[in-house]
Amino acid sequence: MTNLRIGCGYDVHRLVPGRKLVLGGVDIPWEKGLLGHSDADVLTHAVMDALAGASRLGDIGKLFPDTDPACKGISSMKLLAEVGRLLEGKGFAVVNIDAILLAQAPKIAPYKERMGETMAAVLGISPEQIQIKATTEEGLGFTGDGSGMAAHAVALLEKIS
Ligand code: MG
Questions:
Q1: CA 104 to centroid of ligand 1, rounded, Å
Q2: Which pLDDT score, from 0 to 100, does residue 36 have?
Q3: CB within 8 A of 29, min separation 6: which ones?
Q4: Centroid of ligand 1 to alpha carbon of 78 (angstroms)
């Protein structure tokens, strides 16, 4: 059997006024932010779900229940660091991560590289191992009308011990 494991992740959060917008660990100036128990970093949540899936850790709802007071308002970078530690504990190394954010606005392009670098640093991998992409959904659906953002991610892991 191969030592490679693939995982997929998906997440959605509602956009509301009066919240900070944090994506991939990067603060983005915008009139609205994502609503959630943590900082609601939808991109990082999809990535963590992909990592958790590939390593059979379950999903982030199981790892970090939204009923846990310790997770209230927490930076998703802290959660990502914990997922990284759990992966390592199970003997997995990240091969690569590919993620796509679905958002109508603001423009994400100026921030994509920094998001990848930030998440790579937290996971202790090279920025070359992570690709962050973004698209609009052409004004369609809940991302198109600005009521929310979504993200998809896939992760490939290698069992090294
Ligand atoms: Mg989430």
A1: 18
A2: 95
A3: 21, 106
A4: 14
